[in-house]
């Protein structure tokens, strides 16, 4: 990298660490412009830093794809503007470091979902090829959302990007492996849903029956933000 | 040891156990849940010397019928659904009596608290149920509610006269202008949207629940494009394509891809929660260091 290139990269980076106030007690930090390996690494580095050195009054942090929500206690009279400035600086320095190694978790999948064949047809792909394209990559767990423990996984092969169903199903069983837009995910509980279902896994991402037993939320979820995932095709 | 204290004869439109909720778990996809109107719920508990965040029964609209199984002190606050017991004061409920909420007049959510507090299961630090996420379930016909004996208080004799002062009893038909903070995508909205949002008179659509309140009355530019999904706070005013805003409520999704024009001030969310469809209200910009809408 030439000196000029390095400087341009530096400038680009500092422009990327932006933040906006989100009400009186929270701020939203934007650390990348697009989804990808860099955004994922940066998110993980920031999460690790927040775990190690939580700022005074921090109640929770919530990762997005390219953003991090930081919510502070209303009792701690914090000036979110000041916090935003100092944290953005702190995280910018972090971005040069290395995030801790991600955990790789395997998820067995039986590819026999109700939308598998219609999706293959729509994409003009043989079913086997669709399965190969879906199970080949190592995915990143960017965030959990929609329902407890539902992972938004990227990056999905562009040929598999597919709009959600026009009318959502009223009940999608937990364990359904599905595609929604540019992402793939796994339904964590029985719920209504509009994603295209291509398979199922016996892995319980979130087990409500364990709620009474487990006190630490981290023990309740098979996947958490920052993990990496591989789908392993299996026979039903 | 617990006592059977109420039986649900008819659940009506909907009812569930709620407390202060379980904030702090959004990164696992778990919304905070908790009472929709923390002002009314806290008063019901305070009347009975319960902690203000003790679990209460939250009743949506009307049609609910509870049978009293054991004589006790109770307090009812929140919406006016023509209950046969007086609200906003402590009342003695006698075994065998019925507690009915036949017809909604004002507000949306009614709270019933009991002396000593309901004895309910707790998940991740809260008794609030979140049925959509399979955390507990809503109350149904035939369910029995228990009250614990360990917290049994002997309320002092003048307790029968306890009531909430008039200036704390809210008129849900006439909410004040609801304070709004600028949302993360405020700058994406055209200037006309940003000013008309505060000039228009809004009301809550009938398609509203613990997940979200749709707003009617005006609409905003539908040209603002969707964004990469990002974390969403309770109280966020999201604007989907079509321009009809949705306010994220306590069971609402923790992430979303619609731009957010603003955030309802956390202290004013209870006012919005009690706005029944048709009740007009307006927003005003919450004080901010660099203020004035442009």
Number of helices of chain A: 5
At CATH level 3, the topology of the largest domain in chain A is Cyclophilin
Helix content of chain A: 25-40%
CATH superfamily of the largest domain in chain A: Cyclophilin-like
Average pLDDT of chain A: 89
Please state the second-level CATH architecture of the largest domain in chain A: Beta Barrel
Structural class of chain A: alpha+beta
Question: Could you describe the 3D structure shown?
Answer:
The complex is a heterodimer of chains A (236) and B (294). By secondary structure, chain A is an alpha+beta fold. Helices cover 26% and strands 28% of the residues of chain A. Chain A folds into 2 domains: 3-94, Gyrase A, domain 2 (2-Layer Sandwich); 104-234, Beta Barrel (Cyclophilin), CATH 2.40.100.10. Chain A has 5 helices and 13 strands. Chain A has a 7-stranded mixed beta sheet with strand order 5-13-6-7-10-9-12. A 4-stranded antiparallel beta sheet of chain A has the order 1-2-4-3. A two-stranded antiparallel sheet of chain A has the order 8-11. The longest helix of chain A is centred in the N-terminal third of the chain and has 16 residues, at 37-52. The relative contact order of chain A is 0.15. With 294 residues, chain B is mainly beta. Chain B has 2 domains: 2-168, no CATH class; 178-285, Cyclophilin, CATH 2.40.100. Chain B has helices at 38-47, 191-199, 269-273, and strands spanning 2-10, 14-18, 56-60, 64-68, 72-80, 90-93, 98-101, 106-114, 118-119, 144-148, 178-182, 203-204, 212-216, 230-231, 236-238, 246-248, 255-256, 260-264, 283-285. In chain B, strand 12 and strand 13 form a beta hairpin. The chains are: A alpha+beta (236), B mainly beta (294). Chains A and B meet through strand 3 and strand 4 of A and strand 14 of B.
């Amino acid at each position: 990298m030439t000196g000029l290139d390095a400087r341009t990269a530096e400038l680009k980076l500092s422009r990327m660490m932006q933040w906006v106030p989100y009400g009186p007690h929270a701020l939203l930090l934007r650390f990348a412009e697009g989804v990808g390996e860099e955004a994922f690494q940066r998110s993980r580095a920031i999460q690790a830093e927040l775990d190690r050195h939580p700022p005074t009054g921090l109640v929770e942090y919530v990762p997005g794809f390219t953003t991090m929500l930081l919510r502070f206690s209303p009792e701690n009279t914090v000036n979110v503007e000041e916090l935003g400035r100092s944290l953005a600086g702190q995280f910018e320095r972090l971005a040069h470091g290395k995030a801790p190694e991600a955990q790789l978790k395997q998820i067995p999948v039986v590819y026999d979902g109700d939308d598998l064949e219609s999706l293959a047809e729509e994409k003009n792909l043989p079913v086997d090829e669709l399965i190969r394209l879906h199970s080949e990559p190592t995915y990143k767990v960017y965030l959990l959302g929609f329902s407890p423990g539902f992972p938004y996984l990227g990056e999905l092969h562009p040929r598999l990007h597919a709009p959600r169903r026009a009318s959502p199903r009223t009940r999608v069983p937990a364990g359904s492996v599905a595609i929604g837009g540019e992402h793939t995910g796994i339904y964590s509980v029985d719920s209504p849903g509009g994603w295209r279902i291509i398979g199922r896994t016996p892995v319980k991402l979130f087990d409500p029956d364990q709620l009474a037993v487990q006190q630490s939320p981290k023990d309740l979820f098979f996947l958490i933000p920052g993990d990496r995932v591989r789908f392993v095709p299996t026979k039903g | 040891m617990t006592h059977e204290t109420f039986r649900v004869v008819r659940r009506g439109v909907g009812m569930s156990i709620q407390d202060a909720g379980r904030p702090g778990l959004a990164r696992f996809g778990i919304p905070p849940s908790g009472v929709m109107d923390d002002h009314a719920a806290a008063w019901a508990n305070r009347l009975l010397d319960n902690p203000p965040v003790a679990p209460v029964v939250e009743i949506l609209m009307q049609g609910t019928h509870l049978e009293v199984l054991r004589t006790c002190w109770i307090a009812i606050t929140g919406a006016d659904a023509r209950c046969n017991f007086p609200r906003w004061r402590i009342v003695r409920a006698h075994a065998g009596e019925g507690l009915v909420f036949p017809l909604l007049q004002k507000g949306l959510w009614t709270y019933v608290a009991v002396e000593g507090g309901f004895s309910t299961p707790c998940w991740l630090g809260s008794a609030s149920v979140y049925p959509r996420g399979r955390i507990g379930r809503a109350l149904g016909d035939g369910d029995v509610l228990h009250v614990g004996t360990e917290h049994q208080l002997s309320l002092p004799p003048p307790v029968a006269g306890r009531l909430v002062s008039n200036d704390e009893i809210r008129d849900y038909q006439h909410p004040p202008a609801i304070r709004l903070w600028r949302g993360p995508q405020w700058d994406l909205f055209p200037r006309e949207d940003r000013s008309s949002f505060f000039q228009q008179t809004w009301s809550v659509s009938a398609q509203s629940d613990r997940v979200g309140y749709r707003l009617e009355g005006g609409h905003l530019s539908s040209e603002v494009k969707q964004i990469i999904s990002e974390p969403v706070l309770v109280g966020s005013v999201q604007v989907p394509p079509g321009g009809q805003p949705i306010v994220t409520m306590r069971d609402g999704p923790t992430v979303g891809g619609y731009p957010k024009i603003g955030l309802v001030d956390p202290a004013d969310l209870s006012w919005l929660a009690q706005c029944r469809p048709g009740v007009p209200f307006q927003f005003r910009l919450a004080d901010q260091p660099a203020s004035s809408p442009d």
